[in-house]
Amino acid sequence: MITTYKKIFRTLVLGFILTVAILTALVRHQLSQSVSAAFEKMNAQPAAVEKPEVVQPLPETPKELAPEIISAHLSKAYDRCVENYKDELLSAYRAFKTQIGTIHEDFAISSAQVFEDTIHEKITIRTMMRLVRLKATDMIRRDGKDRDTEWINNNIVSTIEPSGQNYAEKYQEASAMFEQRVKIATGEIQARFQIELNVECAALNNDPSFAQAAAKALSHTSQIPVSFAMLSAGVAFDGAAIQSGMITRIGASLTSAYGAFAARFLTKPAKKAAASGIAVAVDGPLPVGDILGAGFAIWTAYDVATLSSGFRKKMIESYQEGLDEQLAELETTVFPSIQSNIEEIVRDLRDKKQSILNAK
Q1: How large is the C-alpha radius of gyration of the chain?
Q2: pTM of the model
Q3: How many other β-carbons are positioned within 10 Å of the β-carbon of residue 344?
């Protein structure tokens, strides 16, 4: 019996010892794993923090510009285009006017010298005698002719024609240059409008609705170049007409000057010559001695020389007056006509703005 109890006790003790051993092994294993896990955690890289996903908003459909904004920017571009065109026309006009002034001044200096030389050659004591004789012949024959004035026209006034031709050619060249500048400026209007539209488009961040409206407006600028016809209409670019007008004007000035001079100084001697019968043989040799001796008791050789000098001076002054009248005519007719047409063109283009910008 005692032996049996001993066996049971021994079995219990061995079971207890085995249990303790098993528990001890389990504890050691658990501690080992915990320590290893701690070291692994210490040596491991920190885990990346996950960012929350950002939800991108859906792209908004771009809003179209309001029609009034588009219209305002189109209007700005058009107005600048018209102003630039106006500046080009006025620049061409000012250059033309300056050039004509230079041509006139050069012509006045050179031609006046030629005319003065001609006057000194043509107007002599014999010339004065001839003019008196011709005037006396008119008084005797009473056939309605004006022989002394005709002589002045044929021998003095006619000398201005070659000089007038030179002036006309230079004027024609200046007119052609002006016309060419106007044509170039007119031909560039569409390109200028395109540039101004691009400026406004950039200011609106290349808005597609404005770009579309700009392209449409640009396609209707074909109405603009017709304005060149308005500029050239009514403006005389005819050099021959200018030449003719100048010769007529200077000739009239010279003839008028002679008429006033003859009335004052030649009429009375002519009456005496007519009364004496000296002037009857008008187509024959000029009897200077007879005229001085018989018909011109109120004249001396000194008087005739003095009158000749005064007459030359008067004709030269009249020639210059004719030139001044020619320039005055340009200042009061041709130049204002050009400037008026430029202003008319600008008004016409401004009137066309709405039809161009709002064309359907």
Answers
A1: 55
A2: 0.64
A3: 15
